[in-house]
Write a structure and sequence with these properties.
22 helices; single chain
Length: 533
C-alpha cells in the first residue's frame, strides 16, 4: 500500500513539473513579464497588509472589530486595493493623467458596475425564490442560496426571452417588472440585502495561516479582476466579434437577434446595455459567472470532498490562477464562466438527490412494497433537467452534462452496469444525431457509423440484463430518465422554435443556429463583383 501511494505521489509530481514547463515553454511572455517585473513596492505593501490581516484575525484578543466585517466592508477593502494598485501604476508611467482624478474616476466606474451586477443578482435571487416553491428540495445553507441564484438566472432569462420576442427589451419596461418582483417579495429582498451587505461574516475557528493567506490572495485577484473588467471595450477577439457584440445587438434590436446558437447568458449580459447603458456593466455581468462559481466550488469542496476551510480557500486560489480561468475573467469575456456556475449548481442538486435517494432506499428495504411509494416526479430530477437544458442554451458543450447526469443516476441505481449501459446508449445517440459534427470532429470519426450500432447493441444488451435481474429498479430508473429528459427539453424548446421559425427546416444545424441576417455571399461572388469595378 505504501509503495502504491508513493508511486502516485511521484507520478503526480512528475506530471505537475512536466505540464508546468511545457506550458512555460509555449507561453514565453510569462518569463518576459517575470524578469521585467517592476512592482516590488506594491507587492511589499500588499504583503504587509496581509501580515497585518493575519495578526488581526489570529493574535488580537479583542474581537469587537468582527462586527464590521461584512459585505460592505469587504467591498470597501477591494476599492482600497484597486486605488492603491492604480496609484502605483500611475507613479510608474508617464501617461498624461491627473493622479487623484483618474483614481476617483475608475473607482466610480467600479462602484457603478458592481452595483448594477449586484442588483441583477438580487433580482435573480428573488425570482429563484419564487420558482423554488415548485421544487421543494431539502437543501439548506449556502448550497440553497447558490441554487436559488442559478434558478433565478434561468427565470430571468425566460422573462428576457419572452420580451425579446416582441422587441420589448427596453429599460422602461424591464425596470417596472423588476421593481414589481422585488416588491411582492420585499421580505426576501431585504433579507438578501442584509445577509450579503450588513450581517457580520462569521470566520471559522479552524482558519489558520494557510487559509488566511489563500483568502487574501484570492481577494486581491478578485479586486484586480474587477478593476481590469472596467474598460471601455473588450480586448479579446471572441468577445469583440461575438460574446459582447451579441448583447450590443440585442440592445440595438431591443429584442432577439436572428441566427446564432442559443444565447442565454448573452441575454443576461445585454442588461448591462439595456438597463445601465454601460460597457463595464456588460463585462462585469460576464465575470458574474466566475465570481458565483467561487461560492459553488467552495461549497463543493466542503460538502463533496470534505475539505477543511483552509484547503478550500487554497483550492479557490489555485482555481483563480489557472491561466484559462484568468484569461476569461478579464481578457476574453465569454460565456464559459456563466456556464460553469450553472453546471456547479447542478452538481450541488445532484449531490443532494444522491444523499436523499440513498436514505429513501435504505428506509424501504425492510418493506419492498414501499419502494413503489417513492415520488414519480422527484423535484431534484426535474430541477436538474431544467438547469441542464438552460445550460445547453448557454453553450452546446453542456450536452455532455446531460449524458453525465443520466450516467450518474444509473450508477446510483445499478452501479457499474447501469453506468456502462447509459454510456453506450449516449455514444450511440451522439453519433446518430451527428452532434459531433457541430465541433467539426465528424470528419475524424471514420468508423462512427459502425461504432454507433455497436454501442447501441451493447447498451441495449446491458439494459435487458438489468431489466431481467431487477425489473423494479429498471422501471424506476427509466421513469427518472424520461422525466429528466422531458424537463431538459423545456428550456431549449423556445430556442429551437425560434430557429425553426427563421429557417423552416428541421435539421440539427438549422435548429441550433437559425438564420443569420448577414448577406449570403461567397468568395467567388466577391471576386466577381471586385473585377466588375
Amino acid at each position: 500500500m505504501r509503495i502504491y501511494k508513493s508511486s502516485i505521489i511521484l507520478f503526480s509530481i512528475f506530471w505537475f513539473v512536466f505540464i508546468f514547463f511545457d506550458y512555460w515553454q509555449k507561453h514565453p511572455y510569462y518569463y518576459i513579464n517575470l524578469i521585467n517585473f517592476s512592482y516590488y513596492d506594491l507587492t511589499a505593501v500588499l504583503t504587509l497588509l496581509g501580515v497585518g490581516t493575519y495578526f488581526l484575525i489570529k493574535k488580537v484578543k479583542n474581537q469587537a472589530w468582527r462586527k464590521w466585517l461584512n459585505g460592505l466592508s469587504l467591498f470597501g477593502a477591494a476599492l482600497f486595493i484597486i486605488a492603491l494598485s492604480v496609484q502605483f501604476y500611475i507613479n510608474k508611467t508617464n501617461l498624461p493623467m491627473t493622479n487623484g482624478g483618474s483614481v476617483l474616476h475608475l473607482l466610480g466606474m467600479v462602484i457603478q458596475a458592481v452595483t448594477s451586477v449586484y442588483l441583477v443578482t438580487l433580482c435573480a435571487y428573488v425570482i429563484g425564490e419564487l420558482i423554488w416553491r415548485l421544487f421543494p428540495i431539502p437543501i439548506k445553507g449556502l448550497s440553497k442560496d447558490i441554487v436559488l441564484v442559478a434558478i433565478g438566472i434561468m427565470g430571468l432569462v425566460s422573462i428576457l426571452f419572452l420580451l425579446g420576442i416582441f422587441s420589448l427589451l427596453v429599460w422602461y419596461i424591464l425596470i417596472p417588472i423588476f421593481v414589481f418582483i422585488l416588491g411582492i417579495r420585499w421580505k426576501i429582498s431585504l433579507d438578501f440585502l442584509k445577509r450579503t451587505l450588513i450581517t457580520p461574516i462569521q470566520l471559522p475557528n479552524e482558519l489558520n495561516g494557510l487559509g488566511i493567506a489563500s483568502f487574501y490572495i484570492l481577494f486581491i485577484i478578485i479586486s484586480w479582476t474587477i478593476m481590469q473588467v472596467c474598460m471601455p471595450f473588450p480586448r479579446g477577439w471572441d468577445a469583440l466579434s461575438l460574446y459582447v457584440s451579441l448583447p450590443s445587438l440585442i440592445n440595438d434590436y431591443q429584442g432577439l437577434v436572428s441566427g446564432y446558437q442559443p444565447y442565454n447568458w448573452s441575454l443576461i449580459m445585454s442588461l448591462g446595455f439595456v438597463l445601465f447603458g454601460k460597457m463595464e456593466s456588460t463585462l462585469m455581468l460576464s465575470y458574474l459567472g466566475g465570481f458565483l462559481t467561487l461560492f459553488s466550488l467552495y461549497q463543493l469542496a466542503r460538502t463533496l470532498f470534505k475539505m477543511d476551510v483552509n484547503f478550500s480557500f487554497l483550492s479557490l486560489c489555485i482555481f483563480s490562477l489557472i491561466p484559462s480561468i484568468a484569461f476569461q475573467t478579464y481578457l476574453e469575456q465569454k460565456v464559459d464562466l456563466g456556464l460553469l456556475f450553472i453546471l456547479t449548481a447542478i452538481v450541488l442538486v445532484l449531490i443532494n438527490w444522491i444523499e436523499h435517494h440513498n436514505k429513501d432506499i435504505n428506509t424501504v428495504t425492510v418493506d419492498s412494497e414501499n419502494h413503489r411509494k417513492l415520488p414519480f416526479i422527484q423535484p431534484a430530477i426535474a430541477l436538474m433537467g431544467l438547469l441542464t437544458g438552460f445550460a445547453l442554451g448557454i453553450k452546446l458543450t453542456a450536452l455532455f452534462t446531460f449524458f453525465g447526469i443520466l450516467a450518474t443516476m444509473w450508477y446510483v441505481l445499478k452501479g457499474n452496469l447501469g453506468f456502462l449501459a447509459l454510456f453506450a446508449v449516449s455514444i450511440f445517440a451522439i453519433f446518430l444525431l451527428k452532434i459531433d459534427d457541430q465541433s467539426g470532429l465528424r470528419a475524424y470519426h471514420l468508423s462512427a457509423s459502425a461504432v454507433q450500432w455497436i454501442m447501441l447493441i451493447i447498451g441495449l444488451g446491458l439494459a435487458v440484463y438489468i431489466f431481467v435481474k431487477d425489473k423494479k429498479t429498471f422501471l424506476y430508473g427509466f421513469k427518472l430518465s424520461v422525466i429528466y429528459g422531458l424537463f431538459f427539453v423545456l428550456p431549449i424548446l423556445p430556442w429551437l422554435t425560434k430557429n425553426y421559425s427563421e429557417t423552416k427546416r428541421l435539421d440539427v444545424n438549422s435548429l441550433l443556429n437559425g438564420q443569420s441576417n448577414a448577406p449570403k455571399i461567397s468568395a467567388k461572388q466577391l471576386i466577381s463583383k471586385w473585377k466588375q469595378q
